[in-house]
Amino acid sequence: MDFNVNRYGRYIILCRSQGVEPVLVVTKRDLVSEVQLATILSALERTFPGVKVLSLSNITREGYASLMGLLVKGRTYCLLGSSGVGKSSLVNCLTGREMMKTGGVSDWSGKGRHVTTHRELVVLENGALLIDNPGMREVGIVDERGGLEQAYDQISALASDCRYADCSHLGEEGCAVVRAVEEGVVERSAYDNYLRLQREREFYETSVAEKRRKERQFSKMVKNYFKKK
């Protein structure tokens, strides 16, 4: 099973930044032992408190009742995940028929094969709407609505107690976040992921801002050109 807490964090940030309520679904639970599954679910619940976490198997159908209980008539749900994690198989199981083409994981690369190449809107029997998306290799962070802070809300809440308003949480005196990590209140892995994603967001936001600046300059140049004609 390809389990990566950091990848889940990226999806949550993407959802939070767009005002979407995330639900983490761990698929292929039949491939791990009960002990391994419990460890995975516990890690997600500790890292993302307040986010609902489910596990299911497309083979045994374990966990499907819990998932169906969340799908409400008239509401739209979107499946996001890497290639080969079982999104299309999940759609087929929920509809009870072969709606989407499915494939396994490549023996050569160890990564999922791109089987779904387009978005597909499916209406379930209970009236819920489900969108299956192509598998995602990478998820970049361009966050303009505080998705990172909402995804790691425990760290964000602690940050308000830091001595300095512009604290970077990298060891400044009086940093409440670092103290919480040292005392075991915040998971070290969650803290590391938060810092990594924060740096990535700053990089992408700088890139986007630079692109917009150049677009404005080009637009101004074009307008000046036509004014002189």
TrEMBL record:
InterPro entries: P-loop_NTPase, Ribosome_biogen_GTPase_RsgA, RsgA_GTPase_dom. GO terms for molecular function: GTP binding; GTPase activity. CDD domains: YjeQ_EngC. Pfam families: RsgA_GTPase. Keywords: Hydrolase, Ribosome biogenesis. Residues 1-137 form the EngC GTPase domain. PANTHER family: SMALL RIBOSOMAL SUBUNIT BIOGENESIS GTPASE RSGA. This is Small ribosomal subunit biogenesis GTPase RsgA. It comes from bioreactor metagenome.
